[in-house]
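Appendix C: a fully annotated inverse folding record. The material below is reproduced so that readers can follow the format used throughout the book. The structure is listed first as tokens, followed by the designed sequence.
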């Protein structure tokens, strides 16, 4: 069996030809009716994966890992882009495709609803989800600050909490549009994002043996696509291994001439220390600002590394009256 690092490196040398089809739960925070998620649904299915789409009924960006479930039927104005009528049940599926589901809750809750309720209904009680794919988001999600804010990331780490491998995909192209606007053009940003997402998922499938976990327990991946498409010279951004910290931006506030707060973004040392990541890897914020796709591996163990925390813990021992180390 390849080591986790060797398998990850293999992503960047293998082609997109599929060796093993995954059972995939596809979700996002931009709604089940967004162009990005529907283009990705089509692309993943065409590649040979079994895909169940379960995503919020309406736009749910910026929710992070918030877990909110519905307690009423769909209220006015209805589902995103008119996709669900007012008064419809709080969850349901497309009348022509029972693999396409909406859930009137947050992204994290939508992912869990897919794992616990929709999965056994569609795949069978004993079937498992091999991989949760969140996105591609309409807009980038780079750096530790966005890691905690993004609903796309929230659905991803919520899935990892449940023990299911998960990857968040985010695209700098932030246009919020309905799947009904999708074109057949390969340079359509939604189709580009779908193709790149499928290439990475296929590469993982090619280095995953039957019955083997796609990613180690407690580990996920965050992928950020740069700005691409017809209005950009970037149409085939290569995948680049990155870390979440490194050039990451955080908000700062000042008071403008009109007396209202003004937000800017700056690079600060507090959000960019290299405590856990591979130090030779560049930061994802820097890489995805160019014509490159950043790929950052993260863990949901939020404890500080022992080398950093031990001195602090030892200094606090008198407070506890006994040694706990």
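Designed amino acids, in order:
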């Amino acid at each position: 069996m390849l080591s986790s690092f060797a398998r990850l490196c293999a992503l960047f040398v293998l082609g997109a030809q599929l060796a093993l089809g995954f059972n995939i739960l596809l979700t996002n925070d931009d709604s089940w009716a967004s162009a990005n998620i529907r283009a990705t649904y089509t692309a993943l299915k065409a590649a040979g994966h079994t895909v169940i789409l379960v995503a919020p009924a309406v736009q749910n960006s910026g929710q992070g890992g918030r877990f909110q479930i519905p307690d009423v039927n769909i209220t006015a104005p209805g589902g995103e882009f008119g996709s669900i009528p007012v008064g419809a049940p709080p969850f349901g599926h497309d009348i022509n495709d029972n693999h396409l589901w909406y859930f009137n809750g947050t992204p994290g809750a939508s992912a869990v609803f897919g794992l616990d309720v929709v999965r056994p209904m569609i795949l069978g009680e004993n079937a498992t989800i091999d991989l949760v794919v969140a996105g591609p988001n309409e807009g980038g999600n780079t750096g530790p600050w966005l890691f905690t804010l993004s609903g796309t990331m929230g659905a991803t780490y919520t899935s990892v909490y449940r023990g299911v491998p998960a990857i968040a995909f985010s695209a700098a192209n932030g246009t919020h549009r309905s799947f009904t606007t999708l074109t057949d053009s390969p340079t359509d940003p939604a189709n580009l994002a779908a193709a790149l997402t499928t290439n990475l998922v296929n590469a993982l499938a090619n280095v995953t043996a039957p019955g083997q976990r796609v990613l180690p327990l407690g580990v996920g991946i965050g992928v950020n696509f740069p700005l691409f498409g017809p209005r950009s010279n970037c149409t085939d951004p290569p995948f680049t291994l990155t870390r979440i910290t490194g050039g990451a931006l955080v908000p700062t506030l000042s008071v403008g001439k009109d007396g209202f707060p003004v937000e800017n973004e700056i690079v600060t040392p507090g959000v960019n220390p290299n405590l856990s990541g591979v130090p030779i890897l560049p930061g994802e914020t820097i890489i995805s600002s160019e014509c490159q796709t950043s790929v950052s591996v993260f863990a949901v163990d939020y404890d500080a590394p022992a080398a950093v925390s031990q001195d602090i813990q030892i200094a606090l021992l008198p407070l506890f009256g006994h040694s706990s180390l």
